[in-house]
Give the backbone structure.
Amino acid sequence: GTFTNLQAGTYIVTIRDAKPAVFDVQVILTEPLTPLSVAASGINNLCQGDNTGEVIALAEGGTAPYAYSWNTLPVQMRDTASNLSAGTYTVTVTDANGCIAVAETTISGPPAIMINATTTEADCPDTHNGTITLTITGGTAPYSPLWEDGYTLLNRTGMLPGTYQVTVTDANGCAAKVSAAVGFTGTFGCVEIPQIITPNNDGFNDEWRIRNIDLYPDAEVLVYTRWGKLVYKSRNISADPWDGRFEGRLLPTDSYHYILYLNDGSKPRSGVISIIR
């Protein structure tokens, strides 16, 4: 016969045959010294949003060998499950006798790297006095910045107006990028008008170039002789600087008078431009 739901221990089975003869048989039922148990632990992700995490199961007791099954997609069936994103994972362990133990563990990752760029504006479009200051949070310190122009300092000074990009890498190799725009504060004060030109073809000061005039795309300039004759007029001052000529001929050394209309509602600017040779 078959007997079920028995606890561990010693049992005597009495057998009677047809004679009737009686036989006693001793049966000993054993069980594992300790019940099956499992503990689970995890290794967190290195970067926010990646899948470098691992979970490890440690089974004890019961009767080896053990079979593992993690609730991953796809199911992983070893004591260690890898390439996991942040989350909670459950392992089911079955021993050689079909006994089952269950455990779960949670893995996470560091917060995402956040870069806040604070800028101060330069005075003018061509002055090197803007600044960029970075404040970095998240990830895993220390941080290593690399600007697109090769600088590796966290904060920048002496910056021209423009847009600058920086990549910050943390201790785990996680990276984040941000762009910072440096503007400029000046407009009218940035326009500088030279008082002398020396058109002798030596490559220096041969033309009358008004600094930062491009800030005023509607500007117009007129130059007169001391007797009031118009010798130069332009609405495209940067592309058409005065070279001291009138009708193709170089004008004599002298002082000439200019009027600059910025056409922005401000008063015209006037002064003297001298030709020296």
User: Anything to note?
Assistant: The mean pLDDT is 92.
